């Protein structure tokens, strides 16, 4: 696969996240009075597809308008054939030498002038624990290398039901959470701001077609149901988690915020980059076997920027390091008969590689806080400090082009003052 050239010149640059091959989907406004609507990234521009739908140039939903809305869910509902037809129509409109250029050009908006919003309405959020290296590292820290992987890990994509209400778009800052914390030095828990606040580098799969109540789906069907992917930061309060997580799993530790990249990359754009899961260490039950490669070769990196300081990359890894694919996770999710809905978001689990430089969380990078990470300017970190900004980026790298997601940013502001937390007792 090579670059499809566009008359939008910035889309032909090898360093753009948004060549014509990508056609990533977002929701944008260009001013405070503006109504959020669907847009498609092309080079350093956004194509206002809501405007093209109004003008009758694009009509993915027939008579039903689906693009003048602050989410892509109505478009997802149209199904995989409509998704592909839409990509083909856009490719024809934006291709170098396209007949319709004069009609389309007025609908281009500079990305630098736009504010990006949540690109879809999150129905429910489930987060998994499907990275072999991450699970091994965390298990080694807590239980030693012999017992690092729980006995179920090589058989089940382990997950928990998270919160959709705190999924936010890149650029949304939030406060460090307060919580119950019980260190080994205390007999009882204390109420305090988290001291071991962390990021988790993940991919998020967006479910674009529903499954029926009572009807499990196969891995192949699950793959068909996936609409696209975002980069996802599953912020985690390690100290709150350590005290609360047994026996029902994470609760408040993961509820503060989950940040997603502003652009959804449709599955079709990632097709040339499919990659197999690593060899199975234990055979899987047949319902989890993959009919083909279900992961993607997506290079990922995380940068950290301390307040007033410079940004530096602290880890580099790849989505193909996962042990379970999103399609396997989705199939497993329906095994009980649990129906899945349009807009459901599945976090992959932290994506760590095999080396120290490819670990996908501060917990692993600083080895539980024991090995501080050195940053430029003589700064060091074990976990995130107040006003630290975490920036995640990723792209599938093609021949002379890349399929990117835009940056996934978030900043941890200082915790609420104690008086705010204790006011109930006043
Ligand atoms: Mn996670």
Layout of secondary structure:
Blueprint: E1 25-29, E2 37-42, E3 45-47, H1 49-54, H2 73-76, H3 80-94, H4 101-104, E4 108-110, E5 115-117, E6 125-128, H5 132-143, E7 159-161, E8 167-169, E9 174-175, E10 178-181, E11 190-193, E12 197-198, E13 201-207, H6 219-225, E14 226-234, E15 236-237, H7 238-244, E16 258-260, E17 265-266, H8 267-270, E18 274-275, E19 295-296, E20 299-305, E21 312-318, H9 326-334, E22 345-347, H10 362-365, E23 373-375, E24 379-381, E25 389-397, E26 402-404, E27 408-413, H11 418-422
Parallel strand pairs: 6-22, 8-16, 9-27
Antiparallel strand pairs: 1-2, 1-5, 2-3, 3-4, 6-7, 10-11, 12-15, 13-14, 13-22, 14-16, 14-17, 18-19, 20-21, 20-25, 23-24, 25-26, 25-27
Helix pairs in contact: 6-9
Bound molecules: manganese (II) ion.
Manganese (II) ion is lined by residues 127, 200, 202, 234, 347, 349-350.
């Amino acid at each position: 696969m090579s670059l499809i050239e566009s008359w939008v010149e910035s889309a032909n640059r090898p360093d753009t996240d948004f060549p014509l091959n990508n056609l990533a989907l977002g929701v944008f406004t260009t001013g405070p009075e503006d109504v959020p609507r669907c847009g498609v990234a092309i080079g350093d521009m956004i194509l206002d597809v809501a405007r093209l739908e109004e003008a009758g140039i694009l009509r993915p939903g027939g008579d039903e308008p689906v693009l003048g809305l602050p989410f892509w869910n109505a478009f997802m509902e149209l199904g995989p054939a409509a998704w592909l037809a839409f990509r083909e129509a856009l490719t024809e409109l934006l291709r170098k030498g396209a007949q319709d250029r004069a009609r389309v050009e007025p609908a281009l908006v500079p990305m630098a002038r736009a504010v990006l919003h949540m690109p879809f309405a999150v129905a429910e959020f489930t987060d998994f624990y499907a990275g072999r290296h991450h699970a091994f590292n965390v298990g080694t820290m807590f239980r030693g290398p012999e017992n690092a992987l729980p006995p179920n890990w090589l058989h089940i994509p382990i997950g928990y039901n998270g919160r959709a209400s705190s999924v936010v778009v890149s650029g949304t800052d939030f406060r460090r959470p307060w919580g119950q914390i019980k260190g080994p030095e205390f007999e009882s828990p204390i109420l305090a701001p988290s001291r071991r606040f962390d990021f988790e580098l993940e991919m998020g799969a967006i479910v674009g077609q529903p499954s029926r109540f009572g009807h499990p789906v196969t891995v192949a069907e699950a793959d068909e149901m996936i609409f696209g992917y975002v980069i996802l930061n599953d912020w985690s309060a390690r100290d709150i988690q350590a005290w609360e997580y047994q026996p029902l799993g994470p609760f408040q530790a993961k509820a503060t915020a989950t940040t997603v990249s502003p652009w959804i990359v449709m599955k079709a754009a990632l097709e040339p980059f499919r990659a197999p899961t690593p060899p199975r260490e234990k055979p899987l039950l047949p319902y989890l076997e993959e009919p083909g490669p279900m992961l993607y070769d997506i290079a990922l990196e995380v940068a950290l920027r301390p307040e007033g300081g410079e940004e530096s990359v602290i880890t580099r890894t790849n989505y193909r390091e996962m042990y379970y694919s999103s399609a396997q996770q989705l199939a497993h999710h329906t095994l009980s008969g649990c129906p899945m809905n349009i807009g459901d978001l599945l976090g992959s689990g932290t994506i760590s590689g095999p080396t120290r430089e490819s670990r996908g969380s501060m917990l692993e990078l600083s080895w539980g806080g024991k090995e501080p990470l050195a940053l430029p300017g003589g700064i060091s970190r074990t976990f995130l400090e107040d006003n630290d900004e975490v920036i995640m980026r990723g792209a599938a790298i093609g021949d002379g082009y890349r399929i990117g997601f835009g940056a996934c940013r978030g900043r941890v502001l200082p915790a609420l003052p104690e008086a705010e937390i204790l006011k109930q007792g006043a």
